Structure formats: structure tokens, C-alpha cells
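In keeping with the milestone schedule agreed at the kick-off meeting, the structural modelling team has produced records for the first pair of proteins. Each record is given below as a sequence line and a C-alpha cell line. The laboratory manager (R.T.) confirmed that both were archived under the project's standard naming scheme.
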Amino acid sequence: MPFKKLKITPRQARYYLFFAALLIALPSIANMYKGHEGKFLVATSAVEGSPFEETVIYLSHHNFWGARGVVINKPIRKAKVDHDFPEKKWYVHLYEGGPVNVEKENSLLLKAEELPQGFVVTPVDDARKAQPDLIEVFEKNQNKNPLRLFMGYSGWGVWQLNREIARGTWGVIDYDPSLMFRTKSTRVWKKAMERVSEEQPAKEAGA
């Protein structure tokens, strides 16, 4: 039995073309969304008792597909590190970056004057590929100033972080270099929470 030809009206054809174009463009559109990238997440009382209690996270990436950042106020001593990794021999100050891949993935905070905030947080593997000469200096322990090295990272899946923020799990504040570099780790969360408390009434008034 011969198949009947599917009849498509001009209007239906326009709909099909529109949705086909939308599906093709979706990945690019999703990557254009930067969310809260470059800002600080401040843990609220909703995470008490969890690894994120009283943490402040610098959000290095945030798009439609997920988010990633590192905790900036949890320094650790080398003596407390049970496992070993090559970067431990560099001149570094160690931090708990987050609960994901603690034993496998470490990130460096590298100063870069050409960037808007003056630094970048990048996985060590990416730094090895992009700047092998710089890594060689670290390997020889010739870096005169201590590097900030984050063990592991904090990560969220598709739209997960946005839902947590909507539920009040995190406060969000703009990046502040004084919190990142000039405030004692023991005071970072308290000062960040003060900022959240100051900004929250303004948001409610504008709602």
C-alpha cells in the first residue's frame, strides 16, 4: 500500500522552521547566559550542618548548563591533607574549594591584570596546558609569592543553583576584592552576610 504524502501548509512549514532554528541556536543562547558569574555566593542558615555552612563562594562560571566556584574562606594546613598531589610541593596556601573531586582536581588563583577583576580561577590541568612555562616555575618552587590553591570545587547542575537561590539557600553579592584578598578568613563570612542583610531590604522595596 503506497504511503500518502504528508501535506504541510505554509503556516505549518514556518512553525517547523522556527522550532528547528530554535533547537539549533539553543546551545549558543544557553552559553550566552552568565547568571551570577563573577559574584559571591553567601551561605545562609539553610545550609547549617552541611559542608557549606558559613562559606563564601566565588562563582567562576555560571551558565544555563550549571555553575562552578570555589570556597574562599576555608584555609587548610598541609598537615591536614591525607593525600598527596604534585601541587602540594609548590609555594601555596591551601583552601577547601568544595566537596567535588577533592582528591583529583585542584584550581589555582592566578593574577592577571588584563582581566576585569585582576585574576582568574582555573583548574591546574587547564593551566598546565595553557601556560607550561609558568607551571615549570611552580614545579621548581621558584614562585616568590604564595599561590592560592583550592582543593576540589563547588558545582551545580542545570538550573540547580538558580533554584537554591530562589529558596533562600544562598545570598548573592557583587565581587569585593577586600573580601577576596584583604579580610581574614575567619571574618569573611560574617562581613559577607552583613552585605546580604544590607542589600536584602532594598530588593524587597523594589519588588
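The second protein of the pair:
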Amino acid sequence: MEIRVLLAGNCPLKNQGICFNLLAINDAVALETTSEFNRLPQLCLSYHPNVLLIFMDDWQENISPIFHRLSSVDILALSNSNSHRCHTLIQKNYINGCLPEASPPELLAQALRAVAKGYTWFSKSLLRTAFRSKVGTNGNYIVLTERETAVMQLVMQEKTNKGIAQELGICNRTVGSQLNSIYDKLRVESRVGAALKAERLGLFEG
């Protein structure tokens, strides 16, 4: 599957770096780079990209209204300092994933492929940044089964459902069932929410 990527960022040097990384990904094609955020809806209509790759930290103004006009494209954000903001945008279904700006081509490739297939991606390093001051048990007593624990640990390693199924030797349907049980116990609604909650509670520390 060819991944058609539209890149949006204000810094020419960073844009050039990402374009160079995209060249190292054999199934990714850079369509165009723009520094005009307001042109994104028009560009998406023209190019029909599989993934819109955005340098989130380049725009300080409220960009949420633009996301309302980009519902037809999957969005992967690059961010070094706005982990909370990215998480909020994922929860609101404005974007589909987030990873650090300086991610190596291998990680960028994994994220692009996951988002292009409809999965949500949130880098583990950003999880830690988002909840650095909150990690640790808070008195809640949550019990996961051995299988749920194995599934959750792989979620924390940023594995897709298919990857989890292959790793544990189970079918995709079983992974989905285990995830639903985990969501219920952690009182969340998504794998991103589960990973964030597990990280915040320190369920897999030590």
C-alpha cells in the first residue's frame, strides 16, 4: 500500500528533514509541503492524501476549526511540547496519532502505516511526557488477568491489534475482546485512553 503524505509545517529545515526521512520509507510518497495551515482543506481535496503530517508545535493559534474541515483525511501530528494537546485532539477524533518531531525514519514509518490503516498512534515517549508528574499508584485497585496484562503490555509497546494477535498466538477477535475488557476495567473508551490510564497509574512500572 502506497502512503500518500501531505506535510504541513512552518520551518523549512524541519520540513526538509521529514521529507528526507520519507524518502527512506519505501511505501511513502511526499505529495507537497505547505506552511499555510488555512490551505490544508483545499490541498487535501486536491491531493487526497492517505495521511496529513503536521508539525503541531508550529501553530500556536487555535487550529481546531480547521480540523473540522479535515474529517476525510487521517492526521498524524509531530510534537515535542504539546503532548496534552495532542492527546486531547485524539480524544476528540481531530487527529489520529502523535509522535516526537525527531523520531527516526523507522518509527515514523510505523506511525504512518498504522494511521493509514485506521489505527491510533501515540508514542510511548509522549505518554511519559504527558503524565510525568502523575505516574504512580493512586490507591485504585485494578486487577487485569494474565492475558489482559500481556495484551496491555503490547499496547504500551505501540503494537497494533494484528501485531498483538501474532505476538500472543491469538486471533484478532480475541484481542478485541481482551481490549474491551481492559477498557471496562480502566474506565476508558480506546487503546490510547487505556495506555494513558495505565501509564498514569503506573500499572507496569518496575
